[in-house]
Design goal:
The chain is an alpha+beta fold. The chain has 13 helices and 39 strands. The strands form 9 sheets. It has an 8-stranded mixed β-sheet, with helices on both faces. Strands 5, 6, 7, 8 and 9 form a 5-stranded antiparallel β-sheet that branches. Helix 2 runs antiparallel to helix 6 and helix 2 packs across helix 13. The longest helix has 19 residues.
Length: 722
Amino acid sequence: MRTSLTALALVWAMAALPLSPAFSKTMTTVAKPTASNPADLPKGTPDPRAFLDEIDGEAAMAWVHAHNAASLAQLGQNPLFEQYRTEALKILEATDRVPAPNFATGGFVDNFWQDKDHVQGLWRRATWASYKSGQPDWQTILDIDALSKADGKTWVYGGSSCLPPAYTRCLISLSDGGLDADEIREFDVATKSFIKDGFYLPAGKQNASWRDADTLYVSREFTPGELTESGYAYVTKVLKRGQSLDQAVEIHRGEKTDVSAGRYPVRDVTGAYVADASYRYLDYYHSQYSFHDGDRTVTFPLPATSSFSALHEGQIVWWLKEDWTSASGKTYTSGSVIAFDFKAGLAQPAAIEPDLLFQPNEHEAVESISQTRNRLILTLSANVVGEIRSYALKDGQWSSLRIELPENSTLSVGSADDESDRIFAWSSGFLQPSTLYLADAATGKVEKLRTAPARFNAEGLQVQQHWVTSKDGTRVPYFLVGRKDIKLDGTTPTLLYAYGGFEVSMQPSYSGSLGKLWLEQGGAYALANIRGGGEFGPKWHEAGMKTNRQRIYDDFAAVGEDLIARKVTTPEHLGIMGGSNGGLLMGVQLTQRPDLWNAVVVQVPLLDMVNYTRMSAGASWAGEYGNPDDPVEGAFLRSISPYHNVKAGVAYPEPLFETSTKDDRVGPVHARKMAALFEDMGLPYYYYENTEGGHSAAANLQETARRYAIEYTYLAEKLMKK
């Protein structure tokens, strides 16, 4: 549990397309609207739904509770609802799950665990021998349920940042109900207790890191209003033990127009301090990154999109997100991983000549970079199939070996040991329960530790990968999971999912709830690897940014049309689902292609793309979506903004909008106002807002099970009709 608290929050659109004659529905007249679409309101007209902007306002919450009750009453009367909730909860709370292990100092294994008796969870620890035996003797370090009860809060554990080399003093992140804003407390692992009069940072969107045992670097809102337009910190101060926040001394300041800015100590894999680093995120993808060498501040001449990924054996490792040519004229292509001597680079930054560790082809991508004591670990994908490679530096030369894990599956590194070269690696697939392996990154030796029990009957099911040509001629892959003997008569209830943004890859994974509540019931599931994601590297993402975003929506519609053309399903039996940026995707599909879908699950979405930069943390995503105040980008955003493109007289599928009151990243206002607009225009819809849970829309397993029950009951009612 040596995770960093310095990560940024990550989140997560063209005029309506003409209906394709092959897939058109009969257009019907809906009830006359009682309030106009915001796009049709005269300039200066008061917003009739402005009361919903006040997140915890009395009128807004009364609206939320009333609409929650109405949706639960309607869906809850279906016997499937309680069946699905019970089955989902049984899967989520199963005690025979594989406890996800993290290497801890001194030969221990840490795990965070939730079940029916530990709703908010336990941070617990076992010896390596005990864990490997399959019968771990867990010792509780921190009981979040007990802490919640004592404090009268619904604490959501956000992780710990522990001081090397002992890693016994930790900064614990605690969020009330799942907010991104957290409070940070100092904790002693040895005594399993919070430090009396120890470091304490009140709730806020903040980062804190250890400089030494009595010193923190803290980035937060020190003075009221001292946050960026995106709502994040841009001032860093040194806080000494015993000082109050107003006594901290400033060491770094960005600009209010930044997404965020900060400064933190850089350490090598042993935990030894190496240098200070500071950053200014100019937008979501461009940054000014500097290192502080004594009185000197050094910035390497790399593209502003480059990602500082590791400090390994004295080499600084970067992940390039665009092509770059060094001073000698050598070009390193987008998606490559490079490394060069850190001290030499600090001395002569303009003269750096990196080593090339990995250069992807057009179908490959880097998914993550981690390191053990002596090895650098790259998790890769090729055509959305995983691979893990281990790199070593010896006598100035890099070499690599492939970790022999199962082929044709999704692979990930769960934890890398900084005291040895061991890694915990996971293998998973749509029909393959997650399997945990112990791998030696130095030798490539792999040992299978355990496999999670199957949560649904996969007999007779198969996974296929198909490719479809999008509107502009680009070939886009998608996975289809369904029965081997599927009848190609268009009657199969099919759920299509995608994300399509922020360079996030959508890969095959095992979901017990999806399998039990959907595949076992005869449904098919499709996962679309559309542009905007990271499946094929930075260029796949960049192809759908800003005013090119219509390509993403065309990709998704093309997959839907292909499922219909293959006679897997028809619009009557085809539903779609997506969250956050994927919720925006769902909103666009709802308004652009209402002819293609009969169910639309819109989870924690962005929907008002005209005003999104002024809502919650929306300003931080202008690098992805564009600036609504720019004439060209603003015109495009208005043309695809779901909230501004609901038309009278169109037969829309009845959507399900889901959000969370405690979501301080995207915020609940998008979903609230879209639902209220549907209501004002006489259009049917479902709405559910979890009053806790943050951007994940659930603060514990019980809430997650209820959300699954809502979603799959809705999908069954819409798509499984004969």
